[in-house]
Write a structure and sequence with these properties.
With 130 residues, the protein is mainly α. It has one domain (28-129). The protein has 8 helices and no strands. The protein has helices at 3-26, 29-38, 40-47, 55-61, 63-74, 79-96, 99-102, 108-126. The longest helix is centred in the N-terminal third of the chain and has 24 residues, at 3-26. The N and C termini lie far apart (47 Å).
């Protein structure tokens, strides 16, 4: 075989191999990115120093959107991490989706604590989407 044919063969094999490797390494990044994106608005609002809505209102408005994202993303989590993910989701839901708290007046200290807890719980969920 001539050197040109060998070089062409190596080039084609390298391109195919690189494409396959890239696909393999990035196959899980799209669901993770989609899951993170769903929480972006709420994280931004919660981390903002002042917002007219209470923490409970911010997350309750996004409840269906977050739950749908969780259901879609859950299928992409490895089985050995699924129990931990489900526990993190339960913790988020237990402390975040609380309709009674959104209907009563709370002081600034309690609102700050709720905001910090909501951010912490969201960030714990987003750890699975890295």
């Amino acid at each position: 075989m001539s050197n040109e044919v060998i070089i062409a063969f190596i080039g084609v094999a390298g391109t195919i191999g690189g494409t396959c490797l890239g696909w393999f390494l990035n196959r899980d990044s799209a669901p993770s990115a989609q899951f993170r994106t769903v929480f972006t608005k709420e994280i931004r609002l919660l981390k903002k120093g002042f917002h007219k809505d209470k923490t409970q209102n911010i997350v309750n408005v996004a409840a269906v959107k977050h739950e749908n994202a969780m259901i879609r993303f859950r299928h992409h989590i490895s089985k050995n991490k699924l129990v931990t993910f489900d526990a993190a989701w339960s913790e988020y839901k237990k402390h975040t989706y609380n309709s009674r708290a959104s209907n009563r007046d709370i002081d600034k200290r309690e609102e700050k604590a709720q905001k910090e807890l909501a951010i912490k719980n969201i960030e714990e969920l987003l750890e699975f989407a890295k």
